[in-house]
Amino acid sequence: MELKIRHVSKDYGTFAALHDVSLDIRSGELVALLGPSGSGKTTLLRAIAGLETIDEGQIFFGGTDASRTSIQQRNVGFVFQHYALFRHMKVADNIAFGLRARDRSRRPHESEIARKVKELLELVQLPELGDRYPAQLSGGQRQRVALARALAIEPQVLLLDEPFGALDAQVRKDLRRWLRAIHEETGHTTVFVTHDQEEALELADRVAVLSKGELQQIGTPDDIYDRPATPFVYAFIGDSSFLPIEVRGGEAVLDRSVLPLGQLSAPDGQARLHVRPQDVVLRPTGEGVSGRVTLLRRTGAFRRADIEVGDARRRIEAQLPPELAITEGDEVGLHFNRFAVFPSDAPHSTAPN
Amino acid sequence: MSDAEIGRALTDRAYSQHRRPPRKRGRGTTFRKPSAIPGFGAALGFTWLYLAVVILVPLGAVVLWTGSLGPERLWQIASDARVGHALRLSFGLSLAAAAVNAVFGLIVAWALTRYDFPGRRLIDAAVDLPFALPTAVAGIALASIYAPNGWVGSIIPFKVAFTPAGIFVALVFIGLPFIVRTLQPVLADLDREVEEAAATLGASRAWALLKVVLPTLLPALLTGFALAFARAVGEYGSVIFIAGNIPYVSEIAPLLIVMRLEEFDYGSATAVATIMLALSFAILLFVNLVEAWSRKRLGHGR
Ligand SMILES: Nc1ncnc2c1ncn2[C@@H]1O[C@H](COP(=O)(O)OP(=O)(O)OP(=O)(O)O)[C@@H](O)[C@H]1O
Ligand SMILES: [Mg+2]
């Protein structure tokens, strides 16, 4: 089922939790909603499920406008961050809940329900645990039960709110791979919320980045990482630093150095140059932008250097091969293999951290 | 303890019970495994001492006095038609009142915790009034309102005051706070996401309430029911003013005991008291067992 979100806004009083969000999700796609805490991820997911009313805009399930239909009619599978299992029901009854809640004409026969529950328990790899109560399960097992319960109703769309948020790192990794496998097997259109960029990039077909209630960019993990559309995305995904520069006639000017913008386009005026540590290359003094190494430290396979750049002594980070012979205090020249330029007054130019 | 203090204690009880992990009752286990944290011995010793002084000794005395009557006399009193009628009236109406309160108290508690409306705090405070009011005042007020020429009594087509219906009204009045106050903290703690989960799974509101919310509330509801029932069985002050106290019609068992005492017939008084005690204990034990069973299913996780 294809999902279209059109100009959706949602206010809490004067605070805009979602602002004019538009987003298309293709049938069978696995999409991650990524953003910092409070950026509106949960609100958007709940709006899709109908758990939250929206003030403006429309949400289409296939061809039908779902904005005005009830939660029950939308037939979405929703997995809550804290699972929200029914504590007084056994695991099997939890999974069967959605089927038993149907009205008589659509309710499957008990034997059919039992068969389905068994099948789902096998899918989530908990075939032995149907007779347990949720209180007798580990966090990861509860998560799987919650997923099985959501899958039981054969949802049009599967929505997961921070599905691995409450689990430890190793379990997260396992479940991630497993969720991808389940997605491949069942083919449900799936949207999941996360604030872990690694999780989003690794798991999703496409990633939608939210900040302060606005959609910054939606694209493949490669798009998001290599071609960030806004300064926010650039800063939020991966490491980066920025330098204040001036754009004049298609060139970036930093003190006395000039950097050709190439395919990048930016209007004349004050701007910011964003660069990732691995795209910073050291050159002999005099070449490129001048800088001074102020701090060197070893991080895993590489060395990280803090470099003060230009007259304003802005500090940027560089990732260097460990064998490079430099010491703290060295004057160096800098070349940027890749960088991005955004006007200073671009919307959302405030980067996190 | 004043009635207000009882109210507070009830809330605490509802809280602590709500949080209590399920008891693991293996076959033949008689003793719950004490926690690794010290304090078990002291707590247990104090509990027994306190229970002995406050409850067991007085109740034991009642039973002992009754025992000294001898079985024949006891049977004679128990099978007396007037005593039998009073007991049936007391227990029947107390159960009915507690049941009615369970339904309407649940609705009141729901409205008070789930919704904000003008006057909510006022109503919330008013729920405690039956605790605070001297029971005789409540009885006189109810009697005058429900009397045939009273505000309510003149509207209702049948007679309420001075009939068993009047007793029922008084018992409902004094029982309401028990249900509301035991349910409120549990309702406030209810996880809204569980109801939302039910809705996304296609359950209608009614189905979600019946299958998801009500089972979660059941232990607290039963606690409230047991307390309201216990209070109603022992209630004297508010009932005698509205009951009319007609033998074989609207005479409650506690009144019968007081009458026997006034006649210096201590034997009969303690005998009736012991029968009431035994019946109450049996009913409360039963309710508690059902409650423990329903609570055990809830477990402590999510
Ligand atoms: N019921 C509410 N009333 C007022 N403000 C709310 C309400 N629910 C959410 N908000 C606000 O809306 C914003 C978005 O909330 P949301 O829960 O969607 O964030 P999120 O992206 O899911 O964050 P997190 O990663 O921390 O879960 C937050 O700033 C939050 O404070
Ligand atoms: Mg959230």
UniProtKB/TrEMBL annotation, chain A:
<dbReference type="InterPro" id="IPR003593">
    <property type="entry name" value="AAA+_ATPase"/>
</dbReference>
<dbReference type="GO" id="GO:0005524">
    <property type="term" value="F:ATP binding"/>
</dbReference>
<dbReference type="GO" id="GO:0015419">
    <property type="term" value="F:ABC-type sulfate transporter activity"/>
</dbReference>
<dbReference type="InterPro" id="IPR017871">
    <property type="entry name" value="ABC_transporter-like_CS"/>
</dbReference>
<dbReference type="GO" id="GO:0016887">
    <property type="term" value="F:ATP hydrolysis activity"/>
</dbReference>
<feature type="domain" description="ABC transporter">
    <location>
        <begin position="3"/>
        <end position="237"/>
    </location>
</feature>
<keyword id="KW-0472">Membrane</keyword>
<dbReference type="Pfam" id="PF12857">
    <property type="entry name" value="TOBE_3"/>
</dbReference>
<dbReference type="Pfam" id="PF00005">
    <property type="entry name" value="ABC_tran"/>
</dbReference>
<dbReference type="InterPro" id="IPR050093">
    <property type="entry name" value="ABC_SmlMolc_Importer"/>
</dbReference>
<keyword id="KW-0764">Sulfate transport</keyword>
<dbReference type="GO" id="GO:0043190">
    <property type="term" value="C:ATP-binding cassette (ABC) transporter complex"/>
</dbReference>
<dbReference type="InterPro" id="IPR005666">
    <property type="entry name" value="Sulph_transpt1"/>
</dbReference>
<keyword id="KW-0547">Nucleotide-binding</keyword>
<dbReference type="InterPro" id="IPR003439">
    <property type="entry name" value="ABC_transporter-like_ATP-bd"/>
</dbReference>
<dbReference type="InterPro" id="IPR008995">
    <property type="entry name" value="Mo/tungstate-bd_C_term_dom"/>
</dbReference>
<protein>
    <submittedName>
        <fullName>Sulfate/molybdate ABC transporter ATP-binding protein</fullName>
    </submittedName>
</protein>
<keyword id="KW-0813">Transport</keyword>
<comment type="similarity">
    <text>Belongs to the ABC transporter superfamily.</text>
</comment>
<keyword id="KW-1278">Translocase</keyword>
<dbReference type="InterPro" id="IPR027417">
    <property type="entry name" value="P-loop_NTPase"/>
</dbReference>
<keyword id="KW-1003">Cell membrane</keyword>
<keyword id="KW-0067">ATP-binding</keyword>
<dbReference type="InterPro" id="IPR024765">
    <property type="entry name" value="TOBE-like"/>
</dbReference>
